[in-house]
Amino acid sequence: MTDPLPTGATIGILGGGQLGRMLSVAAARLGFKTHIYEPGANPPAADVAHACTTAAYDDAAALTAFAQSVNVITYEFENIPTAALDILEALKPIHPNREALRISQDRLTEKDFLTGLGLQTAPYADIPDADALTAALGTIGTPAILKTRRFGYDGKGQARLMSDADAPQAITDMAGAPALLEGFVDFSIEVSVIAARSASGDVACYDPGENIHRDGILHTTTVPARLSASLRTDAVLLAARILNALDYVGVMGVELFVTPSGLIVNEVAPRVHNSGHWTQNGCAVDQFEQHIRAVAGWPLGDGQRHSDVVMENLIGDDMDRVPDLAATRDTALHLYGKADVKPGRKMGHVNRIVR
Amino acid sequence: MTDPLPTGATIGILGGGQLGRMLSVAAARLGFKTHIYEPGANPPAADVAHACTTAAYDDAAALTAFAQSVNVITYEFENIPTAALDILEALKPIHPNREALRISQDRLTEKDFLTGLGLQTAPYADIPDADALTAALGTIGTPAILKTRRFGYDGKGQARLMSDADAPQAITDMAGAPALLEGFVDFSIEVSVIAARSASGDVACYDPGENIHRDGILHTTTVPARLSASLRTDAVLLAARILNALDYVGVMGVELFVTPSGLIVNEVAPRVHNSGHWTQNGCAVDQFEQHIRAVAGWPLGDGQRHSDVVMENLIGDDMDRVPDLAATRDTALHLYGKADVKPGRKMGHVNRIVR
């Protein structure tokens, strides 16, 4: 294990969206500088970063200069091209590690990894072609969801099958991309565990939050989740098992379905997670600082919940509600400074403290 | 009253120290960009700001360009030269207003203002020269403190008089600057009220904190302060009276002595205040965001205390304690990213949550 990064050092962050923005603020709180790497111009994170490189992920010179300017590298999203990682990793440490990225970049690899750990997932099958889908529907049945193995988020790259007749359209929707069929899981609620593991192997989990989605995008996370004490313990132990198996350093979001047969892992994200935004107003040390602490080789901070919170995403026209929300008691606003309001675009979130 | 500043607008901040840095983070949280104006190179605030101008306060061209690039102007310190304010104010609104700056830039004007409002202060006298000091010592007595009327902070520009014999040295210490003699106040504790007033005239105060100084620099602030309910109410009403009298917009720090004859105003600062740093971990909306909300014409936020907090400043070599503090429960670190550790320099602070 390496020495803790001294305050004043620079943390490189791949991705300049809202997660990179909030990571950058957390890093500053510990006295670190940040350098953002982002292909898009004027990213939200640049407003609160020491430096920002605007360059593509296949720009070897820019990647090299970026890596040389920082002490350690982390990221706000998991779909970083392998070739970029090869360049960066040769120059500076990257946390969370390559194995965590490899697992989470491919839904099939991820499911195989999770079931290999003895954890429950939805029934699934590899779907390289239409024939495989026909065969898989025979065992998994409908309703089911066909998902691209790679590069999906917020419900994108997914096709729902209510009957076998939907199979041709679903295959067309995948546009030739390798896919995975997931069977239907009859769950009561979805919860997520935001788990952190330090470089020295300590694990700390925030209280599980209960998630509600709308149109495939997270709508609210409520803490505490309606979980029995034993399921809460199961959730936390399960998350710790995943982190340990990956020798993981950083924060991970673990989405779980609560079913009559126990917890089923929906998916894992090797980064800070939208369902952990409540920690900003519920804990002394939020998920962003916890991630920075881990990446910097620092001890984990105090993630004990001091307040119950309902986090709600502000999406697209929800921004029209900001004046009212700003005047509402027990309400903490977090806006991302994005110039253009677009339907489905995450513009901010609000944490309501429940007293 | 003007319309609320829309998210995405730019707030100009005069001064790039730790207060400007934390104001900048708070502004970003509401989706604002910030532009820092600071004579010193690489100021702490620049790490978390959209833009930073490095120029002197007598650089008219730089001041003009700065003002033209922002929507509204605020500041982290009160000693802004009048000529600079003249240039800036002709171009963009400045909050808090000129009157608040005029009052707080001069200890004599401030005392006259406070006593004019019917508030109690320490006994004081204008000391233009040595003869005036001799006369004032006759009425005020010793111990007493001779202070420069302008540009003092953290105990600088002050001379303590234990007897009349200290007068010549004290006059020498002032180096010809206009000064003020303050009589000794026999107080049990010092508290401060962090008060905010919005553009529409709403006033909100945080719970008073109890301050302990070391070597003339704030050491700790503990919330709640040991105040009776009636004194707590007095403190808040008194702060509100000051804000209303000034038609003030923003956050003000009001330092009070608790004495047998009630509350005595020590001094006011027309800005966010070191004794309000506890709000970062004690409230949903901290003093920095409250200030930004006021300056931007937004409604004030929720400053209710959810946790008891002890704030401790990290000064100079206190930075050696950071590794231990980082591993301590119920502890939130806030470091300023200053490159050089110097004796007496504020390097960060720590908020301990008391459960």
UniProtKB/TrEMBL annotation, chains A, B:
Pathway: Purine metabolism; IMP biosynthesis via de novo pathway; 5-amino-1-(5-phospho-D-ribosyl)imidazole-4-carboxylate from 5-amino-1-(5-phospho-D-ribosyl)imidazole (N5-CAIR route): step 1/2. Residues 111-296 form the ATP-grasp domain. One of its GO terms (biological process) is 'de novo' IMP biosynthetic process. The keyword ATP-binding applies. One of its GO terms (molecular function) is ATP binding. The keyword Repeat does not apply. InterPro entries: ATP-grasp, ATP-grasp_carboxylate-amine, ATP_grasp_subdomain_1, PreATP-grasp_dom_sf, PurK, PurK_C, PurT/PurK_preATP-grasp, Rudment_hybrid_motif. This is N5-carboxyaminoimidazole ribonucleotide synthase. Its EC number is 6.3.4.18.
